[in-house]
Amino acid sequence: MTSLAWLVPAALTLGMMGLAAFLWALRSGQFDDLEGAKWRAISDDNDRIATKTDRSQTDDA
Amino acid sequence: MEAALDAGVAAQEPSAEARQTIVLSVPSIVCGNCIRSVENTLRALRGVEAARANLTTKRVSVVVDPSVNSAIDLTAALEHAGFPAAPLIENAETEQAARVSELIPRLGVAGFAAGNIMMLSVAVWSGEASDMDSSLMDLFHWVSALIALPAVAYAGQPFFKSALAALRSRRLNMDVPISLGVLLATGMSLFQTMRSSEQIYFDAATTLLFFLLIGRVLDERMRTKARGAAENLIGLRATNATLVAPDQTTKLVLASTLKPGMVIAVGAGERIAGDGEVISGQSDIDESLISGETRPRAISIGDSVYAGTINCGGSLRVRITAAEDNTLLSEIGRMMLNAEQSRGRYVRLADRASQIYAPAVHVLGLLTFIAWMAVGAPWDQSLTHAIAVLIITCPCALALAVPAVQVAAMSRLFSKGVIVKAPDGLERLAEIDCVVFDKTGTLTTGELRLETSDGVDEAALGRAGSIAGVSKHPFAQALAKAARAEGMQTRAVTGVEEVPGSGLVTTSMGFEEKVGSAAWAGVEDRNASIWYAAEGKPAVGFNFLDELRKDAAACVSELRHSGYRVSLLSGDRRAAVAQAAAACGIEEWTGEVRPDQKLQAIEALKARGCKTLMVGDGLNDAPALAAGHASLSPASAIDIAQTTADAVFQGDVLQPVIETLSVAKAARRLALQNFAIAILYNSIFVPLAMAGYVTPLIAALAMSGSSIMVTANALRLRSKALRLPNVGASA
Fold first, then answer.
1. Do the strands B240-244 and B250-254 form a parallel or antiparallel pair, or are they unpaired?
2. ipTM of the predicted structure?
3. pLDDT tens column, B36-62
4. Active site includes B438?
5. Domain residue spans of chain B
6. How far apart are CA B677 and CA B696, in angstroms?
7. Fewest CB within 10 A of the end CB: N or C in chain A?
8. DSSP character for B652?
9. CATH 3.40.50.2300 correct for B2-88
């Protein structure tokens, strides 16, 4: 019976972690373009959003 | 994603307050390579900070420095790269995205709560049969309460808000019994947990919210998809205009930025961007979208022209005159506003059901409480039984019945190229018994075809086709196309001179040849559309017809066969309308009707008790589209017609009209079946609940069972073979 004292909280914590991961993924736009994601995975291009250094480099060139 | 993009850029450059995010609709993005070319094209432009294409919505968000770049430069660059693009009106889009992303986290939380509480509940239920310690059972109930209370408070909000809004306006909707059931079940369970009782319904409350939220999310998702697709269609039709500054320099601007007094240049083949007055040039104007008339109208200096019409001949300068209230558009807008009011009174099927259902449920719950009190049960036991009745009757199946069917129906139509935009559009389409078509662009393709029924002069056709090949005028193009279609060899002709508003002339064969209007060719006869006159020979006339859509006649006969009353209302000449009506087999037709007369005709049908479906594409159809019981528009329609119509169909056949009607009717039949399932389930479990036999376990099983049944029934619509049912056939 004492095992329940940590099993129940452990189960709930794991569940909460899953929920938190889902909410994070949703907020950060992971589900916004399900069609495009599969194509981007096989693209060789640098797919990051351009940073300041990238831009200054292109400006120089 | 836009927000993420914005945030990312802002984080990198805190000083960049001047950044602007522009969302472009680019319907031709279909694969990974398109994403790459679109993004690279945009990133190569000056002033573009970031570009991200979304393949699902076929849109691109671009972060730009507005001082360097604007939407018009971006669309021009994309068009050059082979991707026609149009900027979207942003606020509507972001507002929608916010609403969907509000429902999905709630769904996640409800799912988490339902799953975990069910895990604890199953332990309790199986513990009841074995030797579970009562203190352990209490612990499990308290843990359930700990999960359920915040989850219900957060995930239930859309239902509580909607129920509250309905009650404020003294109405009842489906959300009232849902909210009441969930709140009472949660509150009573908390009370029973404190008293260590066994009647705990936390699992029922959260599972209910989870199922209902799935329905809401699917519904909202389908609707967003449809609205997005419709916006993309319309976006592409928004025109750019060539603005002429007082110093004669020209600049490409968005049509929406035009103001009265500005002067625009309109080249041959271009759509005129605003209402205005011609200040120089002479041409023919194709006004079929405005008036339904297929023959171009000749205009010259001083004539007025309307937005959406196409300049067929020479280039024009137009001074924009459209001031606030007296444009053709605002006139039509006023008519539409009045016409739409009647449609606003339509009460949806689910709300109609809840108007009977909700009071019945509440009375049953109250009766159960009173009856148990009357036979001497303690008040808390009576209340528990009453709440069991509320939970059992909580319209899970009923609330899923309609949305599940609608989602299945809309996605089936979506795959066939029909975009249903109005939330209650399908329900209204299911009640149709009378179909009114517009002619030009709806029954017909809007393209011109040479009439060959009484034979053509082949030599003249070949020669005229060769000369016409150099012009952009629709009749000239149609003539050249017809010559090739008749198997004629067309040759490149040199030295052809085009006289705007009149026709073509050449002397390359050593004698004068003219192709053009009757007056140009020097004949009195006005029957033919275009003439060919060689010096010294009688002129030969060619007549053009606006060709019917391939399956127009078949569709009309199928509709009539199923008992629909079909009629034709057109702004075109009587003779042309009569011909089209005869070719399709429509007996009731009217020609030369103005927009307000179309509206009156629809109102007259309504007064006679007909539920009219208006199918039309032009500005002159817009008020009638708003007034009809339901309305459909082809994707080639003018944007105002597409916005007004309940659904938009793509492609060059009329079959989608029939498909839409049959799916709408099938959807209605399935929704009614689902109501029947829900009622059957209630008639079994409500007496049990009233008698006090329903335990939390039975409630959980019954509720999930009925929800799954109605959803499975709704999904049948996706694959079912359908044919158009007869009017008045029992649903």
1. antiparallel
2. 0.76
3. 888 888 888 888 888 888 888 888 888
4. yes
5. 2-88, 98-227+346-408+667-705, 240-331, 414-445+549-664, 452-542
6. 22
7. C
8. S
9. no
